[in-house]
Amino acid sequence: MRDIVFKLLFFFRIHILFQNLNKYQPRVIVFHSVTKKNKKDILNKFIHASIDDFAEQIKYLVKNYNMVSLDKIHQHFEGVKTCKENSVAIIIDDGFSNFYENIYPITKSYNIPIATAINCDRINNQQIPWDVMLSMLITLKGNNTKDDFDTLSKNFLNMNSNMRKKFKNQMKYKLNEHSVNPFEIDPDLRALTYKQIEKLNNDKNISFLSHGLSHDPINALETKIAKRELISSKKKIEELTSKRCDVFVYPQGKYDSNLVKLVKNAGYRYAYTVDHGFIYKQDNRLLLKRINIPPFSSFEEFICRLSGIGIVFSALFRIRRTLN
Questions:
Q1: Residue 1 has pLDDT above 80, yes or no
Q2: Which of 316, 297, 283, 322 is nearest to 27 (CA)?
Q3: 222-267: per-residue pLDDT in tens?
Q4: For residues 64-75, b (16+ Cβ closer than 10 Å) or e, as one string?
Q5: In the chain, what are the helix, strand and coil shares in percent, each to the nearest 5?
Q6: How do residues 160-201 score in pLDDT, each as one tens digit?
Q7: Burial of 256 (0-12, 13-18, 19+ CB in 10 A)
Q8: What would the pLDDT profile of 96-147 be if each residue is shown by its tens digit?
């Protein structure tokens, strides 16, 4: 149904109207994982996008938008320097190895800036986050639907800390039953390595953002552990890159007023949610919005989301949830 709606909006060229209406509002878009597999062969459809789709999307962005760095977005936000019309910055969440293998070669060919938000405990696959384990298990079952992943993810995020720990241990046990090396199940879920980060850091168009240590929902952690997630990840990125890390990306987009204070106290100047929207100068710098591009979006949906149509849909869904 969603795909049909976006195709109709695209057919009637509604996206052009929205793009013109919103041309003065910079936007930050977010992707996650990009695989070289053919679209029909991708089992893990709730995380991976195809490289063909991503290449087509980047080509469209370069042709129709002004590609800028996050620094340019922040300068606009602070009123230091205004962005040109239809400015877009890109963040890639979660620090998958295919950022280096599949995403970076495409963005490099266009010489466009790009940022990646990484979980520092994941580097070199030292840890498997809960959502990566969950996606592997659902893929193994062959019951690979986005509804399953979304439902189980929501349940996990609503658990208390003891239940969450027990659930993660159960997932680890099940994965170990299937494979000595869990990444044999889905190699595209491997994390960036230290060597890849070192090579990427030599490119001035690449910037690294903190996504915490573990990818656990930090707002649900004890304050002492939450502080460690924020401070240690910042310090680690600064050690690896020899550059200041002043941008935080909330894992799963989860936050509350207490976490926002902790983010500020940890020394971050900006933080990004998954709340859908553009960058406005009056926004809270620690609650900046982004436009999410779901892995299996059609080209028409991608274009419509960029234009701002998706923001209207998000607002309508929030009203609907409130009424229900």
A1: no
A2: 283
A3: 999 999 999 999 999 999 999 999 999 999 999 999 999 999 999 9
A4: ebbbbbbebbbe
A5: 55, 15, 30
A6: 888 999 999 999 999 988 877 889 889 999 999 999 999 999
A7: exposed
A8: 999 999 999 999 999 999 999 999 999 999 999 999 999 998 888 875 566 7
- At position 192, the amino acid (one-letter code) is L
pTM exceeds 0.70 for this model: yes
Residue 87 burial (CB count, 10 A): 21
| 10: nearest Cα among 299, 296, 291 | 299
Residue-level pLDDT at 38: 87
At 34 the three-state DSSP class reads: strand
Instruction: Give the H or E element holding residue 63.
Output: helix 51-64
- 166/49 Cα distance (integer angstroms): 31
Q: Which of 273, 292, 281 is nearest to 73 (CA)?
A: 281
Q: How many CB atoms are located within 10 Å of the residue 77 CB?
A: 18
Query: What H or E segment, with its residue span, contains residue 35?
Result: strand 33-35
Rounded-to-integer distance, Cα 24 and Cα 303, Å:
17
* Tokens read off for 108: 């490099």
Which H or E element spans position 210? strand 206-210
Do residues 64 and 86 lie in contact, with contact meaning Cβ atoms separated by under 8 Å?
Answer: yes
Residue in 117, 306, 119 with CA at minimum distance from that of residue 206: 117
Judge residue 253's burial from the number of C-beta atoms within 10 Å of its C-beta, 0-12 exposed, 13-18 middle, 19 or more buried: middle
Q: Domain limits of the chain?
A: 2-125+196-323, 127-190
Please return the burial class of 41, using the count of CB atoms within 10 Å of its CB with bins 0-12, 13-18 and 19+. Answer: exposed
Domain 2-125+196-323: assigned CATH number: 3.20.20.370
Q: Count CB-CB contacts under 10 A for residue 7.
A: 15
How far, in Å, are 45, 102, 180 from residue 184 at the CA level?
17, 19, 9
